[in-house]
């Protein structure tokens, strides 16, 4: 089982690279291509906006048919999206091509991101759910920033077009692997429709999930986390590096941002895997939530004040450790609470909350940073993250009360 979960993780990682490849490239070349700041933010958010509408469909498909073919098809769709990025570099209307590519990629990534987590939950026993989920979730989390690193380095050393073509090839390879490695079903079979009809049965399933207070708090905390890390931070880090001249090894803004984000990636992966192992040995699913959220807030405030490369790297390390330590307890708790035959839908809502926060983040981060500076904008994000500790404390009290 553990070996199979790592195969699922590898597929999720390769599929996520294509979305990250555009992040270090577009904010910098957007001005050269004549794309406005608002349009750049919209393009970066377009895949998440698309997933907001498609994620519920993904959840229903997974609960009904399993993960194998939805994930494989999603990866093929992703490859078409990254090809559109390549065309955009020489097209007469580059903004339209970038926007179309992000929309296409959004549909494919919905099937991949939700499907990979649903697949591992289908094969993970409760005693090792946290560590197996951590492996797949870490791969999902690393895919986007890894694309940022790969995209930035390939663009810096070869060309922007080479970065997009490399991402396309990785998505195709992952699609082929998905056909052979993913399980047929993502969870227990969905119960048959009630006499009131299929539509009523589906509505009842969504209401059942949204009526659970624990899941509502998880969805809200996840939305805020993705607004901060996958929205504001990923969209602005290359611009921050360029503005403050935080260049690494003589590289330009794209390459330097990619290397700095590697620090966050490493810390996030390490913290996620460690938290998974800890949770499988612990009687509590919530003990890590408050300290992890506090680390994310401290890291953002520190990044806003960082004027040197070591200072920025330290702040990103703290943010990575906090976000990795926060995500795994929430997903594991979701798997414990949500009915098994509704795991696909529950994870689609979780992904919906990720996309809602992530869709708001790029435009908000770029505009706020432009008008008030990154010091103040990152401080505001850090304080907002600290505010989430109140509902997270309720999760801990509820666990102690019912456990």
From TrEMBL:
Ranges of residues in domain Major facilitator superfamily (MFS) profile: 4-399
Keyword Hydrolase: no
Entry-linked Pfam families: MFS_1
SUPFAM superfamilies per record: MFS general substrate transporter
UniProt keyword terms in alphabetical order: Membrane, Transmembrane, Transmembrane helix, Transport
Taxonomic placement: Bacteria, Pseudomonadati, Pseudomonadota, Gammaproteobacteria, Salinisphaerales
Places the protein is found: Membrane
Main localization, broad class: membrane
Protein name (database record): MFS transporter
Entry membrane topology: Multi-pass membrane protein
TM spans (from-to): 69-91, 103-124, 136-155, 161-182, 217-240, 246-267, 288-307, 313-334, 376-395
